[in-house]
């Protein structure tokens, strides 16, 4: 019997360490697919188009919305972010498991439409640490950091949307926990 792949939704407030955890997770589970989102925000130093995001213009993003190309999309920090429907569905139908990294608005939308997925939330050890990590990044102005911190605080209040909640005290341990969740879900009847 052929079976569909599992879709894992991963949300975390900005600066939680999700990117590092996902990089390690890719090394540990190379068969796992990661959805590359579209966004209208500028690429940060070290980010590559087509790998970290598909960086597109606002006009092109809005065209894709009109054409129904997104499984979900959201406006975050005044920029658009969206997950292409075809990418996720293609992997899923191929029997491949896929991770979608999206914000709480996106997760809420997918819950509202009863989208079949496993919802995982990654918490920072504390908001103070989140602030420190965001400050260390040195890529954004103080206002942007403050905005992201406020969004982070709001996101933490919406934990009930999720099936699993992890606290990222230690990235190695977090990756182990993610692998345990993925393996357990693969065994679910
Ligand atoms: P960043 O700009 O720091 O890469 O991401 C900001 C936020 O956008 C993060 O919470 C990230 O999970 C979220 N995000 C990235 N891609 C998508 C997407 O395709 N859809 C939604 N809803 N959120 C996304």
What order do the helices and strands come in, and which of them pair?
Elements: E1 7-11, H1 18-28, E2 33-34, E3 38-39, E4 54-55, H2 58-66, E5 70-76, E6 79-84, H3 85-93, E7 98-101, H4 104-112, E8 118-123, H5 127-137, H6 142-156, E9 164-167, H7 171-187
Parallel strand pairs: 1-7, 1-8, 2-7, 3-4, 8-9
Antiparallel strand pairs: 3-6, 5-6
This protein binds guanosine-5'-monophosphate.
Guanosine-5'-monophosphate binds at residues 14, 37, 41, 72, 74, 76, 81-83, 101-103, 105-106.
Detailed description of the structure:
The chain is an alpha/beta fold. 43% of the residues lie in helices and 20% in strands. The protein contains seven helices and nine strands. The longest helix has 17 residues, at 171-187. The radius of gyration is 16 Å and the shape is globular. The structure holds guanosine-5'-monophosphate.
What's the short story on this structure?
The chain is an alpha/beta fold. It is built from 7 helices and 9 strands.
Q: Which ions and ligands are bound to the chains?
A: guanosine-5'-monophosphate
* Average of pLDDT: 91
Broad shape:
globular
Query: Per DSSP, what share of the residues sits in E-state strands of 2 or more residues?
Result: 15-25%
Low-confidence runs of at least 5 consecutive residues: none
